[in-house]
Amino acid sequence: MIKIENLTIILQSFRIIDLCLAIDEGQFHFLLGPTGSGKTLILESIIGLRKPLKGRICVGDKEVQDLPPEQRQISYVPQDLALFPHLTVKENILFGIKARNLDWRLYEGHVQALIEAMRIDSLLDRYPANLSGGEKKRVALLRGLAPKPKLLILDEPLSGLDPSIKADIQHLLKNLHASFHPTTLCVTHDFEEAYFLGDEITVFIDGKVEQAGKKEEVFLKPASRKVAQFLGATNLYRAFVLAQDEQSQRWILGIDGARVSVPMYLCRNPLQVGMEVDLFIRPEEVMILRKGKPVKESLRKNVFEGKILDIMDRGRDYLTFFQTSKEKIPFEISIPSYAFRNLSLSTGQTVSIALREESLWIMR
């Protein structure tokens, strides 16, 4: 297990105070935050390039904050990859094993399995200058994994790649983790990347942890408005608690004159009538109802009629901009391409929408 306790870093006016982070063995953990939030400072402190003002960094049962980088059993794949241009691919891969004076015989089978998994058998005698961007990423990842580190750190591993190569490397990383189970900490600002690859996510904004937990929990149940906005939340509304229905265990919220019914268990904190809260639902959880089709019980309590204002084709899906007729409340709705074709939607059309109640989330 990797454990960071009370890590404090001060760089001029920027402060990270008492950061705590825990990564279970074999976990793919993402540190997710906007540019300039301090993620790189944390990485530099973990790998030993920057000494924190205070705090403990434990790798397994060993404290490493006072050890030099080469003694921490941590592999680091930087954003620029830092492949050695004067070494072949094979020499780059073996660099970490040789630099630590490890017995090659204990790693030979492991390295060969990685080479096959990475599909770079034909590249071993080449130099980095003769590799494509995707091939360089594979070599850098393999070099990091070769010495069987206690922790693999990836800094924006998919940045600067073409979409097709990025998708290929994403699947490669997922398969590598499933096959070799390296304990991994990955830093990124791309929440789609974090959701696809990660087990757990720590959201780090303005020098502090805003939320940490399972990826589904973080994306569907953000801890605060700040987290929701960073994760790209668009259907985020300021609401007031109008009433409490004890019999059905539901809260009735008011949003600009509209009433929304929400099960009590979908609230992060206790509520009371008159309280101001934030209500959130992701665009893919808003349903457009087809005329003449029966509506599921779970959708019937929050149905709104309105008009489609605009439609944006994004290739994989269509982003539909909807506004309720009476209260003029806007909703963004993400519809998969195949479903959009079946719905035959058009700008200006009057339709009814329903909110999946299990996907509504209330934040104080």
Strand order, main sheet: write it out. Answer: 6-7-8-3-9-10
CATH class category label of the largest domain? Alpha Beta
Report low-confidence residues grouped into runs of 5 or more: none
Instruction: Please give the share of residues in helix.
Output: 10-25%
The CATH topology of the largest domain comes to: Rossmann fold
List the helices and strands in order: EEEHEEEHHHEHEHEEHHEEEEEEEEHEE
Distance between the termini: 33 Å
Query: How many DSSP-defined strands?
Result: 20
CATH architecture descriptor name of the largest domain: 3-Layer(aba) Sandwich
Summing up helix and strand content along with how strands pair, one would put the structural category as: alpha+beta
What is the average per-residue confidence, as pLDDT, rounded to a whole number?
A: 91
CATH H-level superfamily title of the largest domain = P-loop containing nucleotide triphosphate hydrolases
- Into which percentage range does the β-strand content fall? 25-35%
Oligomer: single chain
What's the number of domains? 2
